[in-house]
Amino acid sequence: MSNAFLQISNAEKVCRKEIPHLSFDEFRTQALDMVTDGGKVVQYFAYPDKNRLKLLAVLRTDKLFVAGCDVPDPYPSFTRICEPFHLFEREMAEQYGIRPQGHPWLKMVRYHPNYSDGTADVFGNDYTQDIPGNYTYYQVEGEEIHEVAVGPVHAGVIEPGHFRFNCIGERVLHLEIQLGYQHRGIEKQLTQVPDKRLPILGENIAGDTTIGHSLCMAQNLEALTEIQPDQGAQVIRTIALELERLANHIGDLGALSGDVAFLPPANYFGRIRGDFLNLSLLICGNRFGKGLVRPGGVRFSLSNEIRRVLNDRLAELRPEVTHVLELLFNAVTVRARFEGCGAVSHEDADHLGLVGPAGRASGMAYDVRRCFPTEHYPHIDIPKNKKATGDVYARARVRYDEIHQSLQIIESLAAIPVETRCVSDGMAYDLPASSFSVALNEAWRGEVSHAVLTDENGKILRYKIKDPSFHNWNGLAMALRDTGISDFPLNNKSFNLSYCGFDL
């Protein structure tokens, strides 16, 4: 059967009338065929259009494809045939009351009622049993089984999330993760706020992924308005994204060091993370990169003096980073704790659609910078970095490799004089009518994706966000299977997933 989906490019404007509007049966068959043959789901969501509810799917193989259809009644689940659709279908059930028949586990994705009236779906079916107050956590039966509940309020300074362990003795049989206690409603706000507020909301989707999310939003708005940032802006954006990757990977390795009570690297990594955050401060006046990326380019240039200081600081930091990395990874006691702990098989990672370091640790070589490059990445050779074991050690080792690679990327780009025309903040965007764009970037946790649909008046009809944590939280649950409960903190740090990036 020929592929009825439309092939598109990353961050490309597409007229909505060009997107194939298939019959549901053809849409379902084509989507299932692509994903069961090794494709992955980038976006799959519902949206209202002229009093009708429609579906749109963006899938990837070595290329990107898009198609849509109307929502049928009844709506047969894709998940019962192909697991990667399961979380997307649960999200649509929550947001629009679409209840896919045959879905194996239709619990809410985030802890609130569905976006309808909380009692009925769009077809008038009873939804009362699925509202939060009536939710029953999965239970394992047996006289020796006990449950351990952690959160949503935690002793540490972290965001709210609930973890429910079913254990026999110290061994974890099942971990159920419940998130979404913040009720932020970011996606709905993005369809309602003035244009000048869009970048502000975009860079605050997840504070530790400011550049990753800002880039996706800027690239979509640039594609829709046909604005092209200059080469200097693309270089600065690439440097900023790699600095964000460096700071977070180094912070994660410090946290892992602390969890195995190896305090010297924990302390060194914590200090070095601050040094890399200060390099972002040097470039744009903010340690997390807020206010740097805007549609059309960047708000701050890279002067010769800033480049000199950046190069000097990188030259000082490189031997320190190398020394502390070797201190951690050459310690036999650390290897003994990391190796074999919390392994996620390649098969499970594939079914869950794991991305980023978590996916590469389980043999998934996918990296947006290599597969769908934007900004300056088409001119950079990005290694595959995949590992075989899928354990804590593999997830840490991916970070080890990417720290060295990010340092090399930044050093090479900072050595080149670049000129850019800085853009102003608070711009208004004249969006085209009935258009679509989807942007992907490799943030430090993995694939970030934003999709935008405009209506016939050029207003945002639907803004869909997908943080890498959307896929990877279930990877953490799988990593805890048949593992000692005392290993939870170590495994949790090895994923270090986002609560706010998930709670949209």
UniProtKB/TrEMBL annotation:
Domain NADH:ubiquinone oxidoreductase 30kDa subunit positions: 50-109
Coiled coil ranges: none
InterPro entries named in the record: ComplexI_49kDa-like (IPR052197), NADH_Q_OxRdtase_suD (IPR001135), NADH_quin_OxRdtase_su_C/D-like (IPR037232), NADH_UbQ_OxRdtase_30kDa_su (IPR001268), NiFe-Hase_large (IPR029014)
Keyword annotations of the record: NAD, Oxidoreductase
Matching SUPFAM superfamilies: HydB/Nqo4-like, Nqo5-like
Record domain NADH-quinone oxidoreductase subunit D: where: 260-414
Xref: Pfam families: Complex1_30kDa, Complex1_49kDa
UniProt key word Chloroplast: no
GO molecular function (one): quinone binding
Origin: domain of life: Bacteria
Protein's recorded name: Ni,Fe-hydrogenase III large subunit
